[in-house]
Amino acid sequence: MTPKNKITAFVLTYNGEHYIEGCLKSLMWADEVMIVDSGSKDNTVEIAQRLGVRVETNPWAGYGNQLNYALSKASNDWVFFTDQDEVVMPELADNIRKELNSDMGYNAYRTGGQNSLFGHWLQWGGTIEANIRFVNRHKITYCDEQHTRICEQVPRKTIKGVVRHDMAPTMLDWWDRSFKLATIEAEVNYAKGERFSAFKTAMFWWRFVRRYVFKLGFLDGWAGLYMALQRSIYILVYQACLLELDRGIRQPKEAPEKSKFR
Fold first, then answer.
1. Are strands 157-166 and 108-117 parallel, antiparallel or unpaired?
2. Mean pLDDT within 76-92
3. Are residues 77 and 121 in the same domain?
4. 3-class secondary structure, 46
5. Do 176 and 161 reside in the same domain of the chain?
6. Predicted pLDDT at 260
7. Structural domain of 48
8. Residue that finishes a domain, picked among 123, 147, 166
9. Does 151 share its domain with 50?
10. Same domain, yes or no: 125 and 217
């Protein structure tokens, strides 16, 4: 059955040759598949072209702005996106297609994301996180932030199924990328007026306890422990960067929102 509505699935890419093929193959259920590449030096674009994927290029404009650029280039009203190191699971793809064949009473849809650490797919600790990845491109815009957040306050629906994300090849790669994001996020928010908070810094321990104990992160074994630690230490790194900026130890970059961490 042909759905009532068509959809474009897109990926923001940059030097992703090691995982882009698996990502794109998991999107072939869409009516159109597109990448928006920000200057890859490897074979990312060639792999996409070999798979018959539409290629658009745009210099990195910051995460939210790059998403909005992709929305503007999509051929269909409905769009769905993943990051280049993610894979859409069949259950989610099937449920999106079913939704496209309905009356579609929403303009924004959440989908779950599942992370892998130490070869283990995390189930607990609040690690299956819902992000708005499936939207009507004429009704929704993404905020100029380093996280997936829409600007409009609209009702949204959660669609069952997950996008799987193998976060990094090693623990060192994972922590390095995570702390780069914390630094970029701090510099972006400092420019918007945010300052160091002793109270928020002191609450890092609560983030650990909430995830590891109350959200049952310990059921994921060692992976659950390290995930809870990472999410709490992220707060310390973020606040430390704000403190350095407050004291003039760190000089903020120009347009930090255009820095890449992925």
1. parallel
2. 95
3. yes
4. helix
5. no
6. 62
7. 7-166
8. 166
9. yes
10. no
Residue 248: exposed, middle, or buried by beta-carbon count in 10 A (0-12, 13-18, 19+)? exposed
Q: What is the largest CA-CA distance in the chain?
A: 62
Question: Is the pLDDT reported for residue 105 higher than 60?
Answer: yes
Report d(CA 217, CA 224) in Å as an integer: 5
CATH number at residue 40: 3.90.550.10
User: Position 234: which residue type?
Assistant: Y
Residue 1 domain-assigned?
Answer: no
Return d(Cα 11, Cα 55) in angstroms, integer: 10
CA dihedral (253, 255, 261, 262) in degrees, to 10, reads -160
Specify whether the CB–CB gap between 184 and 238 falls below 8 A: no
Cα–Cα distances in angstroms (integers) from residue 136 to residues 5, 35, 52, 68, 79, in the given order = 11, 18, 24, 12, 6
Whole-number Å distance between alpha carbons of 7 and 33: 9
Structure tokens belonging to residue 26:
């998991």
Of the candidates 235, 226, 52, 63, which has an alpha carbon nearest to the alpha carbon of residue 143?
A: 63
Residue in this structure with the two tokens 């959440």, named with its chain if needed: 110
Residue 2 lies in a domain: no
Question: In the listed set 141, 166, 191, which residue is the last one of a domain according to the structure?
Answer: 166
pLDDT at residue number 1: 53
Q: What is the pLDDT of residues 164-201, one digit of tens each?
A: 988 777 888 888 888 888 998 899 889 889 999 999 99
Q: 27: burial class by Cβ within 10 Å (0-12, 13-18, 19+)?
A: buried
Say whether both 69 and 177 belong to one domain: no
Nearest to 196 by CA among 249, 131, 241: 241
Per-chain mean pLDDT for the chain? 91
Q: What is the total count of domains within the chain?
A: 2
